[in-house]
Amino acid sequence: MEKRRKPHPGWDCGWKWPCATGCRDLGYIVERIVSNRHCNTCFDGVITPSGFPAHLKPPLTLCRIEVMQVKPVCPTEPSIGCGTMGRVCLVLLCCVVDRCGCRGEGVAQIEVEDCCRPERAWEAGTNVRRGAQVEISNACFCAPCSFHVCLNICLHTVVSCCEMVGARPQPCNSCPTLPLYPPPCPHCSC
Asked: What gap in Å lies between CA 125 and CA 95, rounded to an integer?
């Protein structure tokens, strides 16, 4: 005799469509780009990365820089809003090679002018994302572990907001009233 398995409890959950006239919510949320700006700037100065492995032997060669984080620089005066001074702080991952060919990584921070900041302060509910790409045009090693660099930086700022698109839920006033099946017995009190 073959034994049959019980159906999975989630297969028949008893959920039915609200009604045949399409009263369910067909809307969805999309992200709308409000502003998308790009600009180029440069940095010429000394950076001192920290966190290099102790076994690296100078002189070090800076071979690559990646941007880990872009954040606005907030002024110290509390009456001025954050990011209104037009500067951003870039957290950089600096990849180096020593004289023996050993590789290492360190983290440095620089501040640059935010030439593509939004024109106005955005209301609540908007998202501001900043990113950057860095290209090394010149880098000279300064003992013990600093570099005098000239960097070309491409900053980009995207301001977006979320919107509801599509139909809004409507009340189901037009759903038909269906009779019970089988119809109740007119002679029974139940």
From this structure: 37
